[in-house]
Amino acid sequence: MVKNIESRLFMLAALFLAIYSVILTLSPSVRERSWDVAYLWQHWVGFLLWSAVFAYAYKEFKREFSESDPFLLPIAALLTGWGLLTIWRLSPLFGFRQSLWMAGIVFAISFSLRFKLDLELFRRYKYLILAGGLLLTFLTLILGSNPAGTGPRLWLGCCGLYFQPSEPLKLLLVGYLAAYLADRLPARDRLIPLLLPTILVAGLALLLLIVQRDLGTASIFIILYATIVFLAIGRRRVLLISGGILLLAGLIGYFFIELIQIRVDAWINPWLDPSGRSYQIIQSLLAIANGGIAGRGPGLGSPGLVPIPHSDFIFTAIAEEMGLVGVIGLLALFGFLISRGIRIALLAPGRYERLLAAGITAYFSIQSLMIIGGNLRVLPLTGVTLPFVSYGGSSLLTSFIGLWALLKISDQSLDEPAPLLKPIPYYIFSATFALGLVVISLVTGWWIIFRGSDLLTRTDNARRSISDRYVHRGDLLDRNNSPINVSQGETGNLTRYYLVPELAPITGYTHNIYGQAGLEATLDEYLRGLRGNPASLIWWDRLLYGTPPPGLDIRLSIDLSLQETADNLLGSHKGGLVLMNANTGELLVVVSQPSFDPNNLDEIGTELAIDKNAPLINRVTQGQYNPENTISLFSQAILGSDSPSTSAQKMDLYQSLGFDNQPQIRIPVAEVTAGELGNVSPLQMALAAAIFSNNGERPTPRIAMGLNTPMQGWVVLPALGEPVHVLAPNTAHETAQTLAGDKLYWSFTSEPGGDPAITWYLAGTLPEWKGTPLILVVLLEENNPKLAARIGEKLLDSAIGP
Amino acid sequence: MSAPIVLGLRLFLGLTLYLFLGWVLLTIWRDIRQQGKLLAEKKIPGINLTIKIGEKYSQNHFSTQSELLLGRDPHCDIPLPDETVSVRHARLSYHHAQWWIEDLGSTNGTQLNKEHISIPTVVINGDQIECGKAAVTISLGIEPSHPKTQKIPKMEI
Lengths: 802, 157
Fold this sequence. Notes:
The structure holds two protein chains of two kinds.
Chain A: H1 2-32, H2 44-64, H3 72-90, H4 92-112, H5 119-124, H6 126-143, E1 156-158, E2 161-163, H7 166-184, H8 191-211, H9 215-233, H10 236-256, H11 258-268, H12 279-291, H13 314-346, H14 351-375, H15 393-412, H16 424-450, H17 452-456, H18 463-470, E3 476-477, E4 483-488, E5 495-498, H19 504-507, E6 510-511, E7 515-516, H20 518-522, H21 524-527, H22 535-545, E8 553-556, H23 560-570, E9 575-581, E10 587-593, H24 601-610, H25 630-638, H26 647-657, H27 682-689, E11 697-698, E12 704-709, E13 713-716, E14 724-725, H28 729-740, E15 745-749, E16 759-765, E17 774-780, H29 785-800
Parallel strand pairs in A: 3-8
Antiparallel strand pairs in A: 1-2, 3-4, 4-5, 6-7, 8-12, 9-10, 9-17, 11-14, 12-13, 15-16, 16-17
Helix pairs in contact in A: 1-2, 1-3, 2-3, 2-4, 3-4, 3-13, 3-15, 4-15, 6-7, 6-8, 7-8, 7-9, 7-14, 7-15, 8-9, 9-10, 9-14, 9-16, 10-11, 12-13, 12-16, 13-14, 13-16, 14-15, 14-16, 23-29
Chain B: H1 2-41, E1 47-53, E2 57-63, E3 67-71, E4 78-79, E5 90-95, E6 98-103, E7 110-112, E8 115-116, E9 121-123, E10 128-131, E11 134-140
Parallel strand pairs in B: 3-4
Antiparallel strand pairs in B: 1-2, 1-11, 3-5, 5-6, 6-9, 7-8, 7-10, 10-11
């Protein structure tokens, strides 16, 4: 009956991996939303190798270890296969290499069962074997290399085959400690003389690892040593002392070794330097958050955005594509693995076997908790592997030798286990591990459920620009539905085109490196389809594709033909121009010079940011200029005197003109500190000047007018504020008439006097005007009233002319 | 579109993973239940104790429990009401297919067939245990012979 369980578990594991492979094969068609794509087939090589080699392993183990634990081998097989397919998904090259490693290791271990190797052999030659392990590790100091080319040289390699001796060294330490302590216990000596030889040996290994800068393995070494000694001796003092040593080593390392400092700083406060030191951990959290509860599905997430996803961050990759559901499944597999390991230790026939089984189990549990905790920012990041799952032949070999020893011990266990003097350390160990699993699941849930939406809207989440290539982003249109910014191209290769580059400071851009600016930034949620679409559609598309639904088109108040006229009039003069409907606040023309061409952002992006002329600034809404003597115009109309006489009066004047407040509009505007009187933006000036053409009322500005929703067609995007009544209509009319003289519109040109020199030109239609009431503000960053007036007059002529 | 098909497969994928885990759990649970049953079915051969304290006190005890506590305390399984017996004096327990006697640190010690015992020791049929002045004779595997109830002869008045 026992072996029946094993074969059924193997069938289920194979089914799981087969479904995973099918999904991975189909994943390109989901991404590109079409059947006509290049499907992925390579990873089936991995699946077939897995099936073949584990079928053989099952047969061999069944014959040689007939009494062994029935759960361990299927669980290890499932973990290995899951990891293998995840590696294939991340990188077919690494996947292929890992498949060969797996096949070789599993075959070799299964085949070696015929030789009936005995664990006693190790017990007898423990010093010799350990010395060999240390020698190999020592050799990496001289002959060491790194397959990646740079970084710590921890590998011994030849002919494309690399091996990391510090991985099996951990297992050798476990075996040595088990053999030594089993021979010496129960301890009649004091602790120090008893442990002295082990401290010497472990210290030597530790020193080697520290010199090599293999700090993850070094910390595992200390914890593993403490755990095994504690399990054997059962004195809590052991834990306290080694905890102190670890803390001390950490502190010394923090101040003297840069790598540790980076890791610890990135752990304590990752948000300070998200693009530098804590890039890995932040990207890891983003990936986990993107996985959500159900996961994106195999092949459908973007785990490749996290550095080294196949080794240190394989847990993150699994979390992104399998979600919280998958993570809990994975943790449960490790939970079963460890609990069976502890059971085998407790039922072991002798002290040596018991300590060995417990030590191997401790090795699996400590290493998995450390790396998963590191991925989740529960612990500082240690670059160790996840047993059975991570990429790496040395790690896989170590895991399988450990598994072999566990199965061997469980096969030997008799009816009568060896007596256990102090069971408490085993309880403490099991409880600590169980607690660790619970903490890890809770923290994963925390990042996904409570912090998920915060994390995913971060600008350093590259998944947003990836989804822009697969999902249509809404277009920006002018008031007559002429396109301004559009997304075009094949699914998977959608590109944003900016058809009116002159409007770039206003409409902005969306770019995978330089982020977003202007209207593309403020209207992003609509353009990205996260607002304005039914919630059910957003949810469904996220579940199916992991992306938002197609974005919504937005109609702007800009009139492209007038805009072109204004652009030509201003030419290359630095400054801003705004033409606005004085009644509704709709911005018909917005010019900001100099401009830039966002179509070339790839090439010019870095220069733009440091350009002294600040082309990225929208001068109309973000520019801040001295109002100069335009203040006297308003002062005369509102206060009846040339300039406000007291500061309280000045405050009142600025308040009624709206100069002390940011305009409420869906476009980035300059920040205004409340209560501080100073410079104003051309948009603020236009709103204030509108009182003379709009019966004394200051309108609310608008630029985004309508939204093309899938259910109701075009809907109006309402203004964000209310118009403010400033002046009696009569007074407004009088001022306008006085300024107009015999022309069809009133106008006012400032007298430049300040430094830097600027020129304001304000103009507006008269109350008698039957057409659209208009307000125009021209601002030149030079002393040139004549030019300002000429630009203004020509533009108004074409705006109100026939 | 392929997405709904893949969504179905993803559901199936999660299901298989949990089926695997569920199967592991189920078999572990079955294993525990079976072991429980096995233990419950384990027959303990009865033990018959004949207790004698001095000349006056004499009693017979028969038990099929796996642990028997001997002592002066009346709550003990086998109470031995004598001053020379400690409150919790000794324990008879059945494991490894044997009955074992173990002294619980009593004042006057426990003797098995006139010899002091310091570690748990196997007892066999006919062994005599002495706790202080109380003597306990052990007979194993024998149902106590209940003397047949005598018929009351008809009384003739």
